[in-house]
Amino acid sequence: MSRPADLPDYHEPPLNELVLGVQFDPIPGYSTVDAGAIWSLFRSEFPVVQEQPPLAPQFETFGGGPSPGVHIQFGPMIGHMRLWFVTEQGDHLLQFQPDRLLLNWRQNGEGTYPRYEQIAKAFQESLSKLCNHVQAEMGYELDINQIEITYINIIPVEDTSEQSKWLTIFPAFGFPIEAMSANFSEISQSEDGKSIGRLHHELRSAVSIDGRNKALQLNLTYRGKPTLPGIDGALELLGKGRLAIVKRFTELTTNEAHNAWKRTK
Amino acid sequence: MTNSQTVVAAFSRFNPGIKADASNISVFPSSRRVTLSRHSENEWTKSLNGKFNELTALQFGWDGYAGRPVSFICAKFAANLLERLFDEALPPPSLVPGSDGTLQFEWHINQYDVEVDVLGAFDVVATRHDHETGSTEELELDTDFTALAGWISELKENRSTPLVESAA
User: What ipTM describes this predicted complex?
Assistant: First the structure.
């Protein structure tokens, strides 16, 4: 897996967290008893375990349209807890629940961003382990129905009103901004014009717990259903999502920002 | 250039391969469209929330045989799809559980029967029967429901026969 030669690159990107994930049909017959065996697959590298509430399933579909006022809700969702398998350093996190597997790299102040190719390779290995285990022990082949890749960027600012210094999509407002929040999405299409994914943009201002440090948080999330089967299909679409995110990130941010992040390509 | 075209053009400037979704921008309705009556977003959600709760909580054997409750995945996918298909000119659809945990939603309006079988996530079969022409069409869908949205829109159209709800 090599980096595309023409993809923008930064020596010091503001990337704070990268998440790669797949969603699959719930493993039939999965019970809490199976969690221990799942953890044993990854324990040597991820020795710390935490429990979290499960993530609700998400589906990127096309046609019709977003109807902001219509939210059909029912439940509660009955499901197993989400398990966090964490490295000793806390910089890598594997998340498992019976219909999801995600790998997070987190900037925790130590070490440098290991780059997408290395994280994708690690995710592929983890996903292969899980698939092989579920096939061998539970007689079931994982049916991946969606991929997800998220880049979480934290851009430190002196003041929230600096958004035009960092972002091309917002002009200088000419008056002080206390807080900001914006969400929008765009459909990604294949070369033959078929809708294959959706890129979600989320921008908000952020303040540290002690109130002293301000930042702009820019999250870019790409989701879609792989067109090819299995792990290879998932990785193929994850790669496309990564390209879409990096290109769009470069377009959304200013030349001044690129200089600050030491853009190399 | 219309407002929606301006927005799409603005995003297309960045990368022609990535198309902005302008579907949430209002457009003038088709002149063939006939509004039967307005159905609020609340009417849809209030009706469907309760029905989804009921169907996902069905007891095993609800049909007198081996009927299972509607699976959460089927219900969630159907709910997400209905959110995208919402049209205030239409009443909320009827929801019908399958004995195997699947879910069907349907309209019987304007001499059309539209039945949508949600067999699982990204696994949908939609059927439309036209009582006027006697024709039946079927769609097998996974991610793109544009054609189904078209069928839904046609439920509102002015047809040669008076607009009445057909008996299911």
Answer: 0.89
